[in-house]
């Protein structure tokens, strides 16, 4: 049985169960608003991390997935409520959500939840896109940002790692600097044509072509395969595979000029 501060709303659960039994079931997004106990050590404490690990394990069994997870930094409107974190959790069906308490790993997940969570509310937000569709949408957003020469923090995890054929492994900041430099190198935004996006689990591959003109008048076109990894609704890894000879003949000399070094 759940403690008082984590009581289930039986009328809402009954409505969800009725929809499932009436054939109106389908993917659903649950908005979780959590307030943590001091002993949970949110956001870096061992009890909180153990709870998140147990929740992730339970979701793997139920087919659910955390689409995004963000700390609550402040409350702009409404009566003060001290929520610490908001989580968007996708489930393949309402029945999957309802069945979680009886699934393998549920006992440990709920034990840690009671240990860490002081207060929680869960809001059913209706039908939700599949995580793979969300990942494909993130890929398209990435290329729109890439064309503009600016890669915002909101797209990336704090520990995001980049890699490219010509520059190897880069930190998040270094990768963003490279994208910014690309924006300075083109006379107008490059056109990126996405030929295909293949998504599976936490990964996606994009087959892409670019075309445009550099600020020195040189035409530029290349072909790529981008490999993405995602975590909680953001990109945590990007690997760019492209024709290095094209970059060497066109972009590298211009990059040296823009950086003030001899070509």
Automatic annotation (TrEMBL):
Entry's transmembrane regions: none
Entry superkingdom: Bacteria
Domain SnoaL-like: 139-237
Pfam families on file: SnoaL_2 (PF12680)
Gene3D superfamilies: 3.10.450.50, 3.30.70.100
InterPro entries to which the protein is assigned, alphabetical: NTF2-like_dom_sf, SnoaL-like
Leader sequence residues: none
Name this polypeptide is given: Nuclear transport factor 2 family protein
